[in-house]
UniProtKB/TrEMBL annotation:
The keyword Hydrolase applies. PANTHER family: DEAMINATED GLUTATHIONE AMIDASE (PTHR23088:SF27), NITRILASE-RELATED (PTHR23088). Belongs to the carbon-nitrogen hydrolase superfamily. NIT1/NIT2 family. SUPFAM superfamilies: Carbon-nitrogen hydrolase (SSF56317). InterPro entries: C-N_Hydrolase, C-N_Hydrolase_sf, Nit1/2_C-N_Hydrolase, UPF0012_CS. The keyword Acetylation does not apply. One of its GO terms (molecular function) is hydrolase activity, acting on carbon-nitrogen (but not peptide) bonds, in linear amides. Keywords: Hydrolase. This is Amidohydrolase. It holds the Pfam family CN_hydrolase.
């Protein structure tokens, strides 16, 4: 694979409904818009093909991977636009009756070069009675995935994973240049934590962080935060969305990764220690 150092990356921010065909069509148009603006890597949010309410409904509208219409459509779109596409996640039905929240990285030939199941599941009770139990519907993954791209290794993650910094440190120490964090972050937690968490992951790892998000209101009254971000290895925001669907584009210089890590080589400074509980 020929190494490239300069390219354009895109975040596609959407407001997905529970109508899969409509969601795929709208996201497809925005991918074409990003490609027309010169984007080589186009990243879509978590649950890009469907934001359904209720675990039974999610399972009913999931598909085995080989039959998923979202995967088929975006593979065709990668070929059409000659772009690499990160499908933030699709609901993939498993043999045990549950669902994997699965992210796919497609190359410009429509081939799957990386797939990642969300490891950390969002089981939380927020203020105001807002409650989530992803583990009732989803099986959490047990593998971190470092995919190979023309711009160097890319570490894959999804949404709630961003609160577990060791995952990102492992990616960086394994050679990642780019980390992707497709999300459907809640409005409540997004307002408080989204930007600071993502900037911290970039600063800690010296990686580019690309984080496309869902936005707006969805079935069941769920609200997602939007504010998709592209952040450089120094923690500077290169592009940020707002509250509505949009396409963000930023220029990426992969050489900035090594330059940043050369200034602050903290990835080489781990030391073993013991925890004193006295």
């Amino acid at each position: 694979m020929k190494k490239m150092t300069l390219f354009k990356a895109a975040c596609v921010q959407v407001n997905a409904s529970n109508d899969m065909d409509t969601n795929i069509a709208k996201a497809g148009d925005m991918v074409r818009e990003a490609a027309a603006q010169g984007a080589h890597l186009i990243c879509l949010p978590e649950n890009v093909a469907m934001m359904e309410f209720g675990g039974e409904n999610v399972i009913a509208k999931s598909y085995p991977q080989a039959e998923h219409p979202g995967l088929s459509a975006f593979r065709d779109l990668a070929v059409e636009t000659k772009s690499w596409i990160l499908i933030g996640s699709l609901a993939v039905r498993l043999e045990n009756g549950k669902v994997a929240n699965r992210c796919f990285l497609l190359n410009d030939q429509g081939e799957i070069v990386g797939q990642y199941d969300k490891i950390h599941l969002f089981d939380v009770d927020l203020a105001g009675g807002e409650s989530y139990r992803e583990s009732n519907t989803f099986d959490g993954g047990d593998r971190a995935v470092l995919a190979q791209t023309p711009w160097g290794p890319l570490g894959m993650s999804i949404c709630y994973d961003v609160r577990f910094p060791h995952l990102y440190r492992d990616y960086a120490q394994a050679g990642a240049n780019i980390i992707t964090v497709p999300a459907a972050f809640t409005k409540q937690t997004g307002e408080a934590h989204w930007k600071v968490l993502l900037r911290a992951r970039a600063i800690e790892t010296g990686c580019y962080v690309i984080a496309p998000g869902q936005c707006g209101e969805h079935k069941g009254g769920r609200q997602t935060y939007g504010h998709s971000l592209i952040i450089n290895p120094w923690g500077e925001v290169l592009a940020e969305g707002a509250d509505e669907p949009c396409v963000l584009i930023a220029d990426i210089d992969v050489d900035a990764v090594a330059a940043t890590r050369g200034k602050i080589p903290s990835l080489k400074h781990d030391r073993a220690y013991q925890l004193d509980r006295s």
